[in-house]
Protein backbone atom coordinates (compact mmCIF):
# COMPACT_ATOMS: atom_id res chain seq x y z
CA UNK A 1 0.00 0.00 0.00
CA UNK A 2 2.83 2.39 0.81
CA UNK A 3 5.63 0.84 -1.27
CA UNK A 4 5.46 3.80 -3.66
CA UNK A 5 6.96 6.02 -0.95
CA UNK A 6 10.30 4.27 -1.47
CA UNK A 7 10.25 5.31 -5.13
CA UNK A 8 10.08 9.02 -4.30
CA UNK A 9 13.20 11.14 -4.68
CA UNK A 10 14.81 12.90 -1.73
CA UNK A 11 13.35 16.20 -2.89
CA UNK A 12 9.83 14.72 -3.19
CA UNK A 13 10.03 13.25 0.33
CA UNK A 14 11.23 16.50 1.87
CA UNK A 15 8.46 18.43 0.16
CA UNK A 16 5.94 15.94 1.57
CA UNK A 17 7.35 16.31 5.08
CA UNK A 18 7.22 20.10 4.89
CA UNK A 19 3.62 20.12 3.66
CA UNK A 20 2.49 17.50 6.22
CA UNK A 21 3.91 19.75 8.92
CA UNK A 22 2.30 22.86 7.45
CA UNK A 23 -1.15 21.30 7.20
CA UNK A 24 -0.85 19.68 10.62
CA UNK A 25 0.03 22.97 12.30
CA UNK A 26 -2.69 24.70 10.29
CA UNK A 27 -5.23 22.19 11.66
CA UNK A 28 -4.02 22.71 15.23
CA UNK A 29 -4.36 26.49 15.03
CA UNK A 30 -7.75 26.38 13.32
CA UNK A 31 -9.49 23.86 15.57
CA UNK A 32 -8.57 25.26 18.98
CA UNK A 33 -11.43 27.74 18.63
CA UNK A 34 -14.03 24.98 18.53
CA UNK A 35 -12.83 23.71 21.91
CA UNK A 36 -12.97 27.20 23.40
CA UNK A 37 -16.56 27.94 22.32
CA UNK A 38 -18.40 26.51 25.39
CA UNK A 39 -16.04 28.36 27.75
CA UNK A 40 -16.38 31.66 25.88
CA UNK A 41 -20.18 31.42 25.83
CA UNK A 42 -20.16 31.01 29.61
CA UNK A 43 -17.39 33.53 30.38
CA UNK A 44 -18.29 36.36 28.01
CA UNK A 45 -22.03 35.78 27.78
CA UNK A 46 -21.97 35.63 23.99
CA UNK A 47 -24.76 33.93 22.06
CA UNK A 48 -24.55 30.87 19.81
CA UNK A 49 -24.98 33.19 16.83
CA UNK A 50 -21.98 35.30 17.91
CA UNK A 51 -19.91 32.16 18.50
CA UNK A 52 -20.79 31.01 14.99
CA UNK A 53 -19.83 34.43 13.60
CA UNK A 54 -16.33 34.18 15.08
CA UNK A 55 -15.95 30.75 13.55
CA UNK A 56 -17.25 31.96 10.20
CA UNK A 57 -15.20 35.16 9.89
CA UNK A 58 -11.95 33.18 9.82
CA UNK A 59 -13.15 31.27 6.78
CA UNK A 60 -14.70 34.28 5.05
CA UNK A 61 -11.50 36.32 5.29
CA UNK A 62 -9.53 33.23 4.28
CA UNK A 63 -11.16 33.51 0.85
CA UNK A 64 -9.37 36.79 0.22
CA UNK A 65 -6.18 35.49 1.84
CA UNK A 66 -6.18 32.32 -0.26
CA UNK A 67 -6.93 34.19 -3.49
CA UNK A 68 -4.20 36.82 -2.99
CA UNK A 69 -1.65 34.32 -1.65
CA UNK A 70 -2.37 32.07 -4.64
CA UNK A 71 -1.72 34.95 -7.03
CA UNK A 72 1.50 35.84 -5.19
CA UNK A 73 2.71 32.23 -5.26
CA UNK A 74 2.28 32.36 -9.06
CA UNK A 75 4.47 35.47 -9.04
CA UNK A 76 7.18 34.93 -6.40
CA UNK A 77 7.19 31.15 -5.92
CA UNK A 78 5.46 28.39 -4.01
CA UNK A 79 8.02 27.85 -1.24
CA UNK A 80 8.48 31.50 -0.34
CA UNK A 81 4.75 32.13 0.02
CA UNK A 82 4.30 28.94 2.05
CA UNK A 83 6.72 30.29 4.64
CA UNK A 84 5.00 33.69 4.76
CA UNK A 85 1.52 32.23 5.29
CA UNK A 86 2.69 29.88 8.07
CA UNK A 87 4.31 32.76 9.97
CA UNK A 88 1.18 34.88 9.54
CA UNK A 89 -1.38 32.42 10.92
CA UNK A 90 0.95 31.28 13.74
CA UNK A 91 1.38 34.86 14.97
CA UNK A 92 -2.31 35.74 14.95
CA UNK A 93 -3.33 32.45 16.57
CA UNK A 94 -0.95 33.30 19.42
CA UNK A 95 -2.37 36.83 19.78
CA UNK A 96 -5.93 35.42 19.96
CA UNK A 97 -5.00 34.09 23.41
CA UNK A 98 -4.93 37.67 24.73
CA UNK A 99 -8.45 38.63 23.55
CA UNK A 100 -10.70 40.11 26.22
CA UNK A 101 -14.08 40.18 24.49
CA UNK A 102 -16.11 39.17 21.45
CA UNK A 103 -15.02 42.12 19.32
CA UNK A 104 -11.29 41.58 19.86
CA UNK A 105 -11.44 37.85 19.15
CA UNK A 106 -13.57 38.48 16.07
CA UNK A 107 -10.93 40.81 14.58
CA UNK A 108 -7.98 38.60 15.51
CA UNK A 109 -9.58 35.46 14.09
CA UNK A 110 -10.29 37.39 10.89
CA UNK A 111 -6.60 38.32 10.61
CA UNK A 112 -5.65 34.71 11.32
CA UNK A 113 -7.81 33.72 8.36
CA UNK A 114 -5.61 35.65 5.93
CA UNK A 115 -2.66 33.30 6.49
CA UNK A 116 -4.81 30.26 7.09
CA UNK A 117 -6.52 30.74 3.73
CA UNK A 118 -3.25 30.97 1.84
CA UNK A 119 -1.37 28.07 3.41
CA UNK A 120 -3.50 25.16 2.20
CA UNK A 121 -3.70 26.28 -1.42
CA UNK A 122 0.01 26.98 -1.68
CA UNK A 123 0.91 23.67 -0.06
CA UNK A 124 -1.42 21.83 -2.45
CA UNK A 125 0.16 23.54 -5.47
CA UNK A 126 3.65 22.79 -4.20
CA UNK A 127 2.85 19.11 -3.65
CA UNK A 128 1.02 18.70 -6.96
CA UNK A 129 3.96 20.10 -8.90
CA UNK A 130 6.70 18.40 -6.88
CA UNK A 131 5.30 14.85 -7.18
CA UNK A 132 5.23 13.02 -10.51
CA UNK A 133 1.91 12.38 -12.22
CA UNK A 134 1.36 8.71 -11.27
CA UNK A 135 1.80 9.36 -7.53
CA UNK A 136 0.15 12.80 -7.30
CA UNK A 137 -3.23 11.71 -5.93
CA UNK A 138 -1.74 9.47 -3.26
CA UNK A 139 0.95 11.94 -2.25
CA UNK A 140 -1.31 14.98 -1.92
CA UNK A 141 -3.89 12.85 -0.10
CA UNK A 142 -1.34 11.46 2.36
CA UNK A 143 -0.13 14.99 3.04
CA UNK A 144 -3.74 15.94 3.77
CA UNK A 145 -3.64 13.38 6.60
CA UNK A 146 -1.34 15.83 8.36
CA UNK A 147 -4.52 17.78 9.09
CA UNK A 148 -5.83 14.87 11.17
CA UNK A 149 -2.51 14.71 13.05
CA UNK A 150 -2.71 18.40 13.94
CA UNK A 151 -6.37 18.09 14.83
CA UNK A 152 -5.63 15.10 17.06
CA UNK A 153 -2.84 17.03 18.77
CA UNK A 154 -5.22 19.90 19.46
CA UNK A 155 -7.82 17.49 20.93
CA UNK A 156 -5.27 15.80 23.18
CA UNK A 157 -3.81 19.10 24.39
CA UNK A 158 -7.32 20.48 24.90
CA UNK A 159 -8.21 17.48 27.04
CA UNK A 160 -5.04 17.81 29.10
CA UNK A 161 -5.25 21.58 29.60
CA UNK A 162 -8.91 21.53 30.60
CA UNK A 163 -8.27 18.63 32.98
CA UNK A 164 -5.52 20.41 34.93
CA UNK A 165 -6.12 24.14 34.48
CA UNK A 166 -9.09 26.44 35.13
CA UNK A 167 -11.12 26.88 31.95
CA UNK A 168 -10.49 30.64 32.06
CA UNK A 169 -6.75 29.94 31.53
CA UNK A 170 -6.91 26.70 29.55
CA UNK A 171 -8.56 28.20 26.46
CA UNK A 172 -5.92 30.95 26.34
CA UNK A 173 -3.10 28.41 26.55
CA UNK A 174 -4.58 26.60 23.55
CA UNK A 175 -4.22 29.73 21.44
CA UNK A 176 -0.77 30.59 22.81
CA UNK A 177 0.53 27.19 21.72
CA UNK A 178 -0.51 28.15 18.19
CA UNK A 179 2.79 29.99 17.77
CA UNK A 180 4.64 26.67 17.39
CA UNK A 181 4.15 26.40 13.57
CA UNK A 182 6.56 29.32 13.15
CA UNK A 183 9.40 26.90 13.95
CA UNK A 184 8.54 24.85 10.85
CA UNK A 185 9.51 27.73 8.58
CA UNK A 186 13.19 27.28 9.40
CA UNK A 187 13.09 23.64 8.28
CA UNK A 188 11.19 24.46 5.07
CA UNK A 189 13.62 27.25 4.24
CA UNK A 190 16.56 24.84 4.42
CA UNK A 191 15.16 21.63 2.93
CA UNK A 192 12.28 22.32 0.50
CA UNK A 193 13.24 23.49 -3.02
CA UNK A 194 11.12 25.37 -5.53
CA UNK A 195 9.41 23.09 -8.05
CA UNK A 196 11.00 22.52 -11.46
CA UNK A 197 7.71 22.98 -13.34
CA UNK A 198 7.19 26.41 -11.77
CA UNK A 199 10.72 27.45 -12.69
CA UNK A 200 10.07 26.32 -16.27
CA UNK A 201 6.47 27.35 -16.90
CA UNK A 202 5.25 29.62 -14.13
CA UNK A 203 7.81 32.34 -13.54
CA UNK A 204 6.36 34.40 -16.40
CA UNK A 205 3.47 35.23 -14.05
CA UNK A 206 5.87 37.59 -12.27
CA UNK A 207 5.38 39.98 -15.19
CA UNK A 208 1.62 40.23 -14.63
CA UNK A 209 0.02 42.82 -12.38
CA UNK A 210 -3.05 42.75 -10.19
CA UNK A 211 -5.07 41.57 -13.17
CA UNK A 212 -3.58 38.10 -12.64
CA UNK A 213 -6.09 37.69 -9.81
CA UNK A 214 -8.83 37.44 -12.41
CA UNK A 215 -7.03 35.07 -14.78
CA UNK A 216 -9.12 32.14 -13.52
CA UNK A 217 -12.23 33.87 -14.86
CA UNK A 218 -10.96 33.76 -18.44
CA UNK A 219 -13.48 32.24 -20.81
CA UNK A 220 -11.58 28.93 -20.94
CA UNK A 221 -11.62 28.47 -17.15
CA UNK A 222 -14.68 30.42 -15.91
CA UNK A 223 -17.10 27.50 -15.61
CA UNK A 224 -14.43 25.26 -14.17
CA UNK A 225 -13.87 27.85 -11.45
CA UNK A 226 -17.60 28.19 -10.73
CA UNK A 227 -18.32 24.44 -10.59
CA UNK A 228 -15.24 23.67 -8.53
CA UNK A 229 -16.09 26.44 -6.05
CA UNK A 230 -19.60 25.02 -5.56
CA UNK A 231 -18.26 21.51 -5.00
CA UNK A 232 -15.65 22.67 -2.49
CA UNK A 233 -18.23 24.86 -0.72
CA UNK A 234 -20.21 21.70 0.01
CA UNK A 235 -17.17 19.73 1.19
CA UNK A 236 -16.00 22.57 3.42
CA UNK A 237 -19.43 23.49 4.73
CA UNK A 238 -20.14 20.01 6.08
CA UNK A 239 -16.73 19.68 7.70
CA UNK A 240 -16.87 23.18 9.20
CA UNK A 241 -20.26 22.61 10.81
CA UNK A 242 -18.87 19.48 12.45
CA UNK A 243 -15.52 20.99 13.50
CA UNK A 244 -17.02 24.14 15.07
CA UNK A 245 -20.18 22.79 16.68
CA UNK A 246 -19.49 19.17 17.60
CA UNK A 247 -17.57 19.97 20.82
CA UNK A 248 -20.45 22.20 21.98
CA UNK A 249 -23.04 19.60 20.96
CA UNK A 250 -21.29 16.88 22.96
CA UNK A 251 -21.08 19.06 26.06
CA UNK A 252 -24.48 20.78 25.98
CA UNK A 253 -26.88 18.28 24.39
CA UNK A 254 -25.08 15.04 25.21
CA UNK A 255 -24.11 16.16 28.72
CA UNK A 256 -20.44 15.16 28.45
CA UNK A 257 -17.65 16.88 30.37
CA UNK A 258 -14.74 18.61 28.64
CA UNK A 259 -12.49 15.63 29.36
CA UNK A 260 -15.02 12.97 28.29
CA UNK A 261 -15.97 14.81 25.10
CA UNK A 262 -12.29 14.78 24.17
CA UNK A 263 -12.44 10.98 23.72
CA UNK A 264 -15.47 11.30 21.42
CA UNK A 265 -13.69 13.95 19.38
CA UNK A 266 -10.61 11.74 19.23
CA UNK A 267 -12.72 8.92 17.74
CA UNK A 268 -13.92 11.31 15.03
CA UNK A 269 -10.34 12.43 14.38
CA UNK A 270 -9.09 8.83 14.14
CA UNK A 271 -11.81 8.26 11.56
CA UNK A 272 -10.64 11.40 9.74
CA UNK A 273 -7.10 10.03 9.55
CA UNK A 274 -8.37 6.76 8.09
CA UNK A 275 -10.50 8.78 5.67
CA UNK A 276 -7.56 10.90 4.54
CA UNK A 277 -5.37 7.87 3.86
CA UNK A 278 -8.18 5.85 2.30
CA UNK A 279 -9.23 8.76 0.10
CA UNK A 280 -5.62 9.19 -1.03
CA UNK A 281 -5.39 5.55 -2.11
CA UNK A 282 -8.79 5.60 -3.83
CA UNK A 283 -8.02 8.84 -5.68
CA UNK A 284 -5.29 7.13 -7.71
CA UNK A 285 -6.98 3.71 -7.66
CA UNK A 286 -10.54 4.39 -8.86
CA UNK A 287 -10.34 8.08 -9.75
CA UNK A 288 -11.01 11.48 -8.22
CA UNK A 289 -14.76 11.71 -8.93
CA UNK A 290 -15.72 8.23 -7.65
CA UNK A 291 -13.82 8.97 -4.43
CA UNK A 292 -15.74 12.22 -3.95
CA UNK A 293 -19.01 10.42 -4.68
CA UNK A 294 -18.39 7.74 -2.04
CA UNK A 295 -17.48 10.43 0.49
CA UNK A 296 -20.52 12.60 -0.21
CA UNK A 297 -23.13 9.84 -0.16
CA UNK A 298 -21.59 8.18 2.90
CA UNK A 299 -21.48 11.50 4.78
CA UNK A 300 -25.18 12.11 4.13
CA UNK A 301 -26.14 8.68 5.47
CA UNK A 302 -23.92 8.71 8.57
CA UNK A 303 -24.59 12.35 9.49
CA UNK A 304 -28.32 11.63 9.31
CA UNK A 305 -27.85 8.79 11.80
CA UNK A 306 -25.57 10.87 14.05
CA UNK A 307 -27.86 13.89 14.24
CA UNK A 308 -31.39 12.49 13.95
CA UNK A 309 -31.40 8.88 15.15
CA UNK A 310 -32.18 8.24 18.87
CA UNK A 311 -28.83 6.63 19.66
CA UNK A 312 -27.08 6.49 23.04
CA UNK A 313 -23.79 8.15 23.99
CA UNK A 314 -22.18 4.70 23.93
CA UNK A 315 -23.22 4.07 20.32
CA UNK A 316 -22.48 7.58 19.11
CA UNK A 317 -18.73 7.09 19.66
CA UNK A 318 -18.23 4.42 16.91
CA UNK A 319 -20.68 6.28 14.66
CA UNK A 320 -18.45 9.33 15.08
CA UNK A 321 -15.47 7.31 13.86
CA UNK A 322 -17.34 6.24 10.71
CA UNK A 323 -18.52 9.82 10.19
CA UNK A 324 -14.90 10.98 10.26
CA UNK A 325 -13.94 8.41 7.61
CA UNK A 326 -16.57 9.56 5.10
CA UNK A 327 -16.47 13.31 5.76
CA UNK A 328 -12.72 13.74 5.54
CA UNK A 329 -11.95 11.29 2.73
CA UNK A 330 -13.26 14.02 0.40
CA UNK A 331 -10.31 16.25 1.23
CA UNK A 332 -7.63 13.86 -0.03
CA UNK A 333 -8.32 14.20 -3.79
CA UNK A 334 -9.03 17.97 -3.74
CA UNK A 335 -5.43 19.14 -4.06
CA UNK A 336 -4.57 16.91 -7.01
CA UNK A 337 -7.99 17.38 -8.63
CA UNK A 338 -7.74 21.17 -8.53
CA UNK A 339 -4.13 21.19 -9.76
CA UNK A 340 -5.14 19.06 -12.74
CA UNK A 341 -7.79 21.59 -13.81
CA UNK A 342 -5.52 24.65 -14.15
CA UNK A 343 -2.23 25.25 -16.04
CA UNK A 344 0.93 26.24 -14.16
CA UNK A 345 0.66 29.96 -14.96
CA UNK A 346 -2.59 30.28 -12.99
CA UNK A 347 -2.54 27.13 -10.81
CA UNK A 348 -1.79 28.96 -7.56
CA UNK A 349 -4.52 31.52 -8.21
CA UNK A 350 -6.99 28.79 -9.19
CA UNK A 351 -6.35 26.57 -6.19
CA UNK A 352 -6.12 29.49 -3.79
CA UNK A 353 -9.40 31.03 -4.91
CA UNK A 354 -11.58 27.94 -5.32
CA UNK A 355 -10.51 26.29 -2.09
CA UNK A 356 -10.66 29.43 0.03
CA UNK A 357 -13.84 30.79 -1.57
CA UNK A 358 -15.50 27.40 -1.11
CA UNK A 359 -14.32 27.30 2.49
CA UNK A 360 -15.54 30.85 3.17
CA UNK A 361 -18.99 30.27 1.69
CA UNK A 362 -19.22 26.86 3.33
CA UNK A 363 -18.44 28.39 6.70
CA UNK A 364 -21.62 30.45 6.59
CA UNK A 365 -23.48 27.23 7.34
CA UNK A 366 -21.83 27.29 10.78
CA UNK A 367 -23.38 30.68 11.48
CA UNK A 368 -26.77 29.38 10.31
CA UNK A 369 -26.42 26.47 12.74
CA UNK A 370 -25.79 28.95 15.56
CA UNK A 371 -28.86 30.99 14.62
CA UNK A 372 -31.16 27.99 14.19
CA UNK A 373 -30.06 26.40 17.46
CA UNK A 374 -30.71 29.65 19.29
CA UNK A 375 -34.10 30.53 17.78
CA UNK A 376 -35.65 27.58 15.95
CA UNK A 377 -34.53 24.08 16.93
CA UNK A 378 -31.96 22.00 18.83
CA UNK A 379 -28.25 22.18 18.04
CA UNK A 380 -28.16 18.54 16.88
CA UNK A 381 -30.99 18.99 14.36
CA UNK A 382 -29.50 22.24 13.07
CA UNK A 383 -26.11 20.55 12.61
CA UNK A 384 -27.61 17.61 10.78
CA UNK A 385 -29.78 19.70 8.44
CA UNK A 386 -26.95 22.02 7.43
CA UNK A 387 -24.38 19.25 6.99
CA UNK A 388 -26.69 17.19 4.76
CA UNK A 389 -27.47 20.31 2.69
CA UNK A 390 -23.75 20.90 2.22
CA UNK A 391 -23.13 17.40 0.86
CA UNK A 392 -25.99 17.87 -1.57
CA UNK A 393 -24.17 20.95 -2.92
CA UNK A 394 -20.94 18.97 -3.13
CA UNK A 395 -22.54 16.28 -5.30
CA UNK A 396 -24.21 18.90 -7.52
CA UNK A 397 -20.90 20.58 -8.33
CA UNK A 398 -19.11 17.26 -8.72
CA UNK A 399 -21.27 15.82 -11.49
CA UNK A 400 -20.51 18.86 -13.67
CA UNK A 401 -16.72 18.45 -13.49
CA UNK A 402 -14.46 16.11 -15.52
CA UNK A 403 -12.38 13.20 -14.24
CA UNK A 404 -8.68 14.13 -14.12
CA UNK A 405 -6.87 11.02 -12.89
CA UNK A 406 -3.59 10.53 -14.78
CA UNK A 407 -3.63 13.99 -16.36
CA UNK A 408 -0.13 15.35 -17.06
CA UNK A 409 0.54 18.89 -15.83
CA UNK A 410 3.02 19.43 -18.65
CA UNK A 411 0.41 18.33 -21.20
CA UNK A 412 -2.08 20.71 -19.55
CA UNK A 413 0.45 23.54 -19.98
CA UNK A 414 0.96 22.60 -23.64
CA UNK A 415 -2.81 22.73 -24.25
CA UNK A 416 -3.00 26.11 -22.53
CA UNK A 417 -0.13 27.49 -24.62
CA UNK A 418 -1.74 26.20 -27.82
CA UNK A 419 -5.06 27.76 -26.85
CA UNK A 420 -3.31 31.06 -26.13
CA UNK A 421 -1.54 31.02 -29.51
CA UNK A 422 -4.82 30.36 -31.33
CA UNK A 423 -6.49 33.22 -29.47
CA UNK A 424 -3.67 35.59 -30.36
CA UNK A 425 -3.77 34.53 -33.99
CA UNK A 426 -7.52 35.12 -34.13
CA UNK A 427 -7.11 38.53 -32.53
CA UNK A 428 -4.39 39.48 -35.03
CA UNK A 429 -6.54 38.25 -37.94
CA UNK A 430 -9.52 40.32 -36.80
CA UNK A 431 -7.31 43.36 -36.34
CA UNK A 432 -5.84 43.04 -39.83
CA UNK A 433 -9.31 42.55 -41.33
CA UNK A 434 -10.47 45.89 -39.93
CA UNK A 435 -7.56 47.86 -41.41
CA UNK A 436 -8.77 50.07 -44.28
CA UNK A 437 -6.67 49.67 -47.48
Question: Secondary structure elements and their pairing?
Answer:
Elements: H1 10-44, H2 48-76, H3 78-96, H4 102-130, H5 136-164, H6 167-176, H7 182-191, H8 196-202, H9 222-252, H10 258-285, H11 288-308, H12 313-329, H13 334-339, H14 344-375, H15 379-399, H16 409-433
Q: What is the strand content? A: under 5%
CATH architecture: Up-down Bundle
Rg (CA only): 22 Å
- How do the SSEs run, as a string of H and E? HHHHHHHHHHHHHHHH
CATH topology heading? Growth Hormone, Chain: A
- Residue share in helices? over 70%
Low-confidence stretches: none
- How many H/I helical runs? 16
Class computed from helices, strands and strand pairing: mainly alpha
- Roughly what is the average pLDDT, rounded to an integer? 83
Going by CATH, the homologous superfamily would be MFS general substrate transporter like domains
Q: State the end-to-end distance.
A: 69 Å
What is the number of E strands? 0
Count of folded domains: 1
| CATH C-level | Mainly Alpha
What is the general shape?
globular
Please give the largest β-sheet: none
Structural notes for this entry:
By secondary structure, the chain is an all-alpha fold. It has one domain (9-190, 218-402): Growth Hormone, Chain: A (Up-down Bundle). The protein has helices spanning 10-44, 48-76, 78-96, 102-130, 136-164, 167-176, 182-191, 196-202, 222-252, 258-285, 288-308, 313-329, 334-339, 344-375, 379-399, 409-433. The longest helix has 35 residues, at 10-44. The N and C termini lie far apart (69 Å). The mean pLDDT is 83.
Amino acid sequence: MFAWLKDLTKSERRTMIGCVGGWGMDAFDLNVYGYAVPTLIAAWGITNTQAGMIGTVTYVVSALGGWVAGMLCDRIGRVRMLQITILWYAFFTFVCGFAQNFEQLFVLRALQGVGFGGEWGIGAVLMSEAIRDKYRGRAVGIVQSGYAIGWAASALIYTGLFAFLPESIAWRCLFWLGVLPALLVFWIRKHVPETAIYQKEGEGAANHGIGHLFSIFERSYLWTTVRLSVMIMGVQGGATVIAIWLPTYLRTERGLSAVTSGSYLFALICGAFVGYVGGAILADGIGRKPTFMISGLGSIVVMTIYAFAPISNTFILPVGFVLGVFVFSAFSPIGAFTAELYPTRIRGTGQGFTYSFGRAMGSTFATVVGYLSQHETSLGIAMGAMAVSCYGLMLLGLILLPETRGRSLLALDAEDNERDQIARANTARKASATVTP
